[in-house]
Amino acid sequence: MRQSWSKWNLYNLTRQRPPRLERRTFFQQKWTSKAETRAYHGEYLTARQWQTMFRRTLKAVVPMYSVDLAEHSGAHMAAGRGAGVGADQGVGVPAVPYMSQLYWPMERRLDIACYRAMFAASPRMARQFVIHGFVKVNGKKMTHPNYMLNPGDMFSVDQTKVLYATGAPKVGTGKSASESTESDSESTETPEATEEEEGTSAEASDEAPDPVTPDEALAALSLDTPSSSSSTHKKGDPNNPVDYSKPYATPWRPRDYLPPFAFIPKYLEVNHNTCHAVYLRHPVARPGQTEVPSPFGPEVMQLAFNWFLRRR
């Protein structure tokens, strides 16, 4: 699952400047912006699938505060249709980034919503969970990753799969990276130390063994080994035991890295204790901010939006 990002996505995330649009015609600028944005937003979807989801309407809201309405008539809110004209009048209303809402229908997809809720490490992993039947919508199994969520829909992911998606990968046979490093360091001993230990063990074998109490015998039988029938035992935190049968490292710990834009958006209500989430509403744009995560600016989004308007 670590190789789920394509070369285009890695290029978009590591570059430090926007796409070069100078000395290009308007058609070339629109095509370049479309190619750049589509390489990040839903790059595993075909052009026909995105054209089906594309909407001309861009959702936005303007906060109407009672104190501000009492002082002003509210005309500055509509000045310039959200272009920030009211800021020139000393009111301090930032511009509304409408164009950043271009890919807001993509956030309604079930696989993207599972990724935004941090139930998976990437959209492709979330898509795999949906196809394999590990995701439910309103209590019913949903195997279609292109299912469009409606406000109020509740979706959930199998807790075991969420632990696998967000947990550190297993190293070796049931051991984490720290455990394997400790075992390797213990195994690399000098021959002199090995001979001394053999001599010490031979001398100790001549002596009579100490008697074993019933409590110690019961504790020794309760210890877990990879070949035993019981695969869990308490080590440290009793709620986070060692389990060699799990596909992730145990005791469980989060991955060393998180995907880009890994945060809980405002339009989702997530409970990680039960791995449930509710799609509250559609993402909207507000003065100075947008709820659709994207590494591209409003200018590039506007050119891409004009391209899709033409193609429709």
Please describe what this structure looks like.
- The chain has 312 residues and is α+β, with helices and mostly antiparallel strands.
- It has a domain at 95-167 and 254-312: Structural Genomics Hypothetical 15.5 Kd Protein In mrcA-pckA Intergenic Region, Chain A, CATH 3.10.290.
- 35% of the residues lie in helices and 11% in strands.
- The protein contains eleven helices and nine strands.
- The protein has helices at 7-14, 26-38, 47-53, 66-71, 110-116, 123-131, 159-166, 177-187, 191-206, 214-222, 298-311; strands at 135-137, 140-141, 153-157, 232-235, 237-243, 268-271, 276-279, 285-286, 289-290.
- The strands form three sheets. The protein has a five-stranded antiparallel β-sheet.
- Strand 6 (268-271) and strand 7 form a beta hairpin.
- Helix 2 (26-38) packs across helix 11 (298-311) and helix 5 crosses helix 6 (123-131).
- The longest helix has 16 residues, at 191-206.
- It is globular, with a radius of gyration of 28 Å.
- The chain starts with 6 loop residues before the first helix and ends with a helix.
- The model is unreliable at 1-14, 173-191 and 217-235 (pLDDT under 50).
- Keywords: Ribonucleoprotein, Ribosomal protein, RNA-binding, rRNA-binding.
- Residues 181-209 have a biased composition (Acidic residues).
- Residues 169-249 are annotated as: Disordered.
- One of its GO terms (biological process) is ribosomal small subunit biogenesis.
- Belongs to the universal ribosomal protein uS4 family.
